[in-house]
Design goal:
seven-stranded mixed sheet; Aspartate Aminotransferase, domain 1; Aspartate Aminotransferase, domain 2; three-stranded antiparallel sheet; alpha/beta; 41% helix; homotetramer; 333 residues
Chain lengths: 333, 333, 333, 333
Amino acid sequence: MRFFSDNAAPVCQPVLDAMIAANTLDTAYDGDARSRALDARFSELFGAEVRALWVPSGTSANCLALAALCPPHGAVVCHREAHIHNDEAGAPGFYTHGAKLLLADGPGAKLDVAAIEGVLAGIRDDVHQVQAHAISITNATEYGLTYTPEETAAIGALAKARGLGLHVDGARFANAVAHLGCAPADLTWKAGVDALSFGFVKNGGMSAEALIFFKPELADATLYRRKRAGLLLSKGRYLAAQIHAMLDDDLWLANGRAANAGAALLARAAGDRLVYPVEANEVFVRLTPDEAAGLRALGFDFYDWAPGEARLVISWNQSEAEIAPLADAIAAL
Amino acid sequence: MRFFSDNAAPVCQPVLDAMIAANTLDTAYDGDARSRALDARFSELFGAEVRALWVPSGTSANCLALAALCPPHGAVVCHREAHIHNDEAGAPGFYTHGAKLLLADGPGAKLDVAAIEGVLAGIRDDVHQVQAHAISITNATEYGLTYTPEETAAIGALAKARGLGLHVDGARFANAVAHLGCAPADLTWKAGVDALSFGFVKNGGMSAEALIFFKPELADATLYRRKRAGLLLSKGRYLAAQIHAMLDDDLWLANGRAANAGAALLARAAGDRLVYPVEANEVFVRLTPDEAAGLRALGFDFYDWAPGEARLVISWNQSEAEIAPLADAIAAL
Amino acid sequence: MRFFSDNAAPVCQPVLDAMIAANTLDTAYDGDARSRALDARFSELFGAEVRALWVPSGTSANCLALAALCPPHGAVVCHREAHIHNDEAGAPGFYTHGAKLLLADGPGAKLDVAAIEGVLAGIRDDVHQVQAHAISITNATEYGLTYTPEETAAIGALAKARGLGLHVDGARFANAVAHLGCAPADLTWKAGVDALSFGFVKNGGMSAEALIFFKPELADATLYRRKRAGLLLSKGRYLAAQIHAMLDDDLWLANGRAANAGAALLARAAGDRLVYPVEANEVFVRLTPDEAAGLRALGFDFYDWAPGEARLVISWNQSEAEIAPLADAIAAL
Amino acid sequence: MRFFSDNAAPVCQPVLDAMIAANTLDTAYDGDARSRALDARFSELFGAEVRALWVPSGTSANCLALAALCPPHGAVVCHREAHIHNDEAGAPGFYTHGAKLLLADGPGAKLDVAAIEGVLAGIRDDVHQVQAHAISITNATEYGLTYTPEETAAIGALAKARGLGLHVDGARFANAVAHLGCAPADLTWKAGVDALSFGFVKNGGMSAEALIFFKPELADATLYRRKRAGLLLSKGRYLAAQIHAMLDDDLWLANGRAANAGAALLARAAGDRLVYPVEANEVFVRLTPDEAAGLRALGFDFYDWAPGEARLVISWNQSEAEIAPLADAIAAL
């Protein structure tokens, strides 16, 4: 029983079925009907005119967004534990041609206005220092915390006041929406967000993420950057098909809810052992080395995240029956 | 009946089956068994120790190869009609951080030693001019011509003598091997090739190409570049599965032969209308505008490539029954 | 007696004097009064509001201009023999982060509207091809030809119609203005030029070129790029001083005229041997190997430019007395 | 009486004289005898075979060094207050094509082995994280502290053990050598340093810094990078002349000693007010706002560096007579 990563989970059946259904002669690249329908599909979901591009990875979604919001000589403010800083091999530096990440702090990889303002205040307004052009937050965060619509809007207001772009890394956007019970619009354009990496791969998809621009004009140059980065797959219809399947009947939301529910089960069992409130599908639990070893001896696999701290991630397809034994084992520690 | 592009063709069933078979919990990125087996699999195919990385597109395979062979301040010699120059949106400039492409000429997008030497001779050996660091050829070329083992080896010898890397864009490598009837080794490491973009997507795959390094040490930094470019898909096992399916029972070669056979059928019908010898799955035919219109009126779709010249591309899945009517129609012109 | 290059010439006395006069405690970088006065100084010269930045080399002036006019995923149309393509070690690729140069032809490294339109017509309007964003011409050209105000305006009109920026490499702008007898404005903003590399180093300066923006807003990001490229010298006042000295009493124009006059002397002597009309300070002369050797035996040094073709460059400080012997020797061939 | 910055100081007379002496017809770029003599000149100074390139700024020296030591996908460990991180507008990101700076801490902008090891220990050895390829230290530091030969050698040993390059930003290398009384070799190649930015501009020069490679082969590609960055000035002899003048009779060292002596004068007066030991030409003094205002009312100018903390920088040309009044005023606070 593995609780390592939602990347390890299989692909859900409707996504596979949609790919199989797409397996006919069709127009290459993004000229097929499925790809061309994405703008409309996401515009409906968000209740606003948006532009939507498929890309094959979350890193590429994030970095195309940053490249659209920040010039090579600029900087992006993000959390010190943001995925774009720690786990993307410097991809933001590649896509932006060397822009900087300016690091802010906050518990659970979550930023607030004060933390961002603190970073901005440290930049002298002259050509010797790299000026901020954008902010990037992750919702849900790398530690499974969510930004509420109000919290997002506060950061959005700051971004607007300072003339900065605002990007949301939504690798677990589904989990955030599921937890908050709000509309996708509330966490994005209504809160001042310019670009969203809408993740599907951790949530039942195979190889398709959606990059959403709420300022449609930002998409224009991104179309060129996507091709220039080798991301415009020639048989793009199989990516578009995945996304449509995830949007059909709000499968993305159902999957997010399912994973969150599993995490909640563990959270209740963990009680005071929780490092952070559980607001998505990740559970960080304080465990002694002996306790961790004990759980592993029972067949449960997970990452040691920090000394005395384990990370448990629930995937869309893990049932209560599969999770309950781990919950019981934790409760019994 | 569409003869536009092999990118438009569907995915072949064994590839789909392999993806479905891979649909279980597994290690993320390229840590799964299928991904880890690629080095051995291709080493066997090529009869030499090679390193093999999956990537999701031909453009990314080509450009990671170029980045491994050419520093930012260098240049790559290629044909004026090479895909990397004309159809990749400047991706070589992105991946190499601004290296130049130096353009050589030759009929049918095919280079020979003299053409390459002519370009090299034009470069002054001083810091004011960009020095060549690599050569890139396409086999089969953008016009469906092949480089024989001897022709490749002659370019390989030139590369070695000049201290240049040698890359082969093998988007249609299967078609080239099928036509020449040689071993894959004869067109690559035995001929001095350092890196090969081994294409599967045009040949029955969905979203996986293999980047092969015949100098294994070139792969080391490429692993970082692949991740940094957002190309290390988190569910990489579905890409590895495609490649294994293509290699099983030499499906790649069977598909290449099938497409070539279809093209040969058209070639025989076209006779003197052929612009180039047909050595792969592309057929360039001289047609007047009226003749082209006539074929289209019969339901045949294809690109006008140049004034008075049409491109017909045969895909792995187009049967003789499907092609014969076009052959007949051309013969009847 | 050397006729190799105007880069080999010494610095003229007023420039040295101005540098010595600047040798006091002063504000660093470009905060000193001399640097801050450049905008006004050039605005007066051009009769329009411009922004002017010193930089230490012509290559850096050219490439900062290109970076201001062309995004990384774009292209710049220039002549196949343009300095930015042939003699700047790929600097445009470095400064633009990999944008392409698209090469056009024309005698004497000079472009016309038809040549540029020919290049533009060859670009498909899709994301697979790199789209043009700017045009760069050199006035006077690398072969000493000038663009008249009318010729420049025709290219400016094309640029405007196509939404392209227009840059002039004016390494020998002084020679062009001196030859044409027009106002600097006629060759720049009145003709649709957006940015000019105004050269002083070949014309009596030491290490200061001026980058002029006729769309002032283009300067904003360039200030950051200049620093980011290590070009914002800490003792910038010595560069500003050079430029002021060159502008005082139109020294730049006097020096340009002097060099042109020397070239005219050679041109008259060369007669039918001229490869191009002599419109600046460069003279290209047809010489057999024996003739070239004969001139060298007399003590005249120069470059063999092409088989049977020599380049003679006159510097601002070469007097008629120094040039006349060469003119006589050529006439006597 | 200004104590802002050593960049504000004038150029010393021997440097100016050398530039005037160089003002004759000569070979362009770095083909002149003065430029060609730099390798030998610095090899003599360092007692080892080195390669030496002039560049027009400290930022460009630093960043060419980093580009030689770190690939685009790598990282450089430096201090959080390093000039390359805080005051070069992101130039390291430009020159390295997006490599990261990994920030370590230590009082007075000085690193030790433990601080660097702490940063290195935080990097997972996988392709998701950017791996360190080099270390950069500043000697003397941005706060005027020096690394002794032993301290440098300890970092050099760490670099060697980890396979990392080692760069020294020596904008105030003269001040460090003057303070430590050691040989230049002791602070560089004998201590494992690969590249040194040898600063002259803050120390009496005008526009020439020397980039020294102790692994000569590192210079080869750097020659191309220098030109590609627009840093290969066409009249390079005037830069080489400055450096020769600074090396003649150890003028660089005399100037460094003079500035250090002035700083020592202030240090003695400041006593307990010193924030850091004074080991070079910078003095950081604790001052209340009233005290700072009082000093300014007496005509002394300087930067407020942090709340309650002023920075006083002494230049090579400030005499004891000029500095004594400030020393007295501080002592009298």
